Amino acid sequence: MLSRINTLTFNGLETLDVDLQVQISSGLPNFIIVGLPDKAIAESRERVRAALHSLGLNLPAQRIVINLAPADLFKEGSHFDLPIALGILAAMNVIPITELNKYLILGELGLDGSVLGINGILPAAIHAKKQQLGLICPAANGSEASWSELSNILAARRLLDLINHFQHTITLPSPQKKVLSTPVCTLDMSDVKGQESAKAALEVAAAGGHNLLMIGPPGSGKSMLAARLPGILPPLTPDEVLETSMIHSIAGELNNGQICLERPFRAPHHTASTPSLVGGGRKASPGEISLAHNGVLFLDELPEFNRPTLEALRQPLENGYVSISRVNAHTTYPSSFQLIAAMNPCRCGHLGDPKLACNRAPLCAREYQSKISGPLLDRIDIQIEVPAVSPWELADVKRGESSEVIRNRVIAARKAQSERLRQLGIKEFYTNASLKGSLLEEIAVLDNEAQNLLITYAERNKLSARAYHRTLRLARTIADLQKESKILKMHIAEALSYRRSLLPDSK
Q1: pLDDT per residue over 297-324, tens digit each?
Q2: Is 471 helix (H, G, I), strand (E, B) or coil?
Q3: Residue 169: which domain range?
């Protein structure tokens, strides 16, 4: 008695086919799983045995061998429980194997025969669609799987439901899509009093996808501004929703299979380790920078982060992906995120204020700011000061522009970027911050006055090639917000005003 089941294993976002073979033959009663399984798969024997017993079925008193092919590929995860159980039932002729061969099967089993939710169903469903297979998964993951547009999905709560379905006594209903009803950001930009220049910089950052660093004393509103950035960003495109949700699915971040249409906003604490931020661990899981893909990564108290952790951000900021190498895994995750950072100018936070600054200024500021390396700063397009808000501004009852008004301008600027790329015959969308090579040269064309200003500034301030090109991208975004087709001298001047040293007073 032999049956074969279609399933898979994960390597990051990559899905690898596994041919699960079940053989029941004569010999001493035994239950063996071979094919480089991890401990979770080895423990499947007891979960499967108990689940079948709860249905009144006992394993045959024969030799049962489960082979996970290819045998030289390491497999891990509890999602092999359900395919093993169904493979045994097919070998016992309880379920017709011809029906099971039409499906890709994943799921964990409880001891009572329930089918429990697992991580990674969305990429598995997309893989099943490419292989022209249906999908059998837990009911808890059915909504998540339905976002793959796969038509044939069986989402079961219990193993008995699947047996009855294939014996045609019941029909399992198709799962329905669910959208996260609670918005990611409910904070409004009109709540921020004063800080008009910081608001303008935040709008430029949102319009072009630029990285931003805010420097200012405690209580000046840096975190308040950053928390309101998601409210002015455009919604995710359908392709971005799918790509982002796949990462969150692997990480187990999709609650009840609900997909979020807003851009992710991740704000890890400054005590976060390098693996938690970049990704890693025994299973090479995605880190905060991958969970922030197509969204925002906010690092508050930037100098308080571990130095090697911050330096690990340099490659993802430049390339848009991160490669994680471990003994058992080599995995690549997309990490195209927008970095928003905030910091105090010095340890006491009151550099330049003679009444509040400590007696070690400016030496303490020099030591504090040196925790941020030059190469990392070079990758941050906008570096602005956020001064303390005066009591007169706090007492003003007049409210500023709402997030909705600013968001409309940001969306219009993004549409201008998209239309410009379409005219060049480029279907894929790039924000201004991600323009590279000849595409940047073709889009960010300067007149003579603007070019002379940029060259003079670059020579005087020793701008690197990276900083030079990032200034061009920033000027292109400023021109888009002002609905200008060409980059003018005033756009370069504004872009250069955003690229300054941390605090000249501290030098």
Answers
A1: 999 999 999 999 999 999 999 999 999 8
A2: helix
A3: 2-176
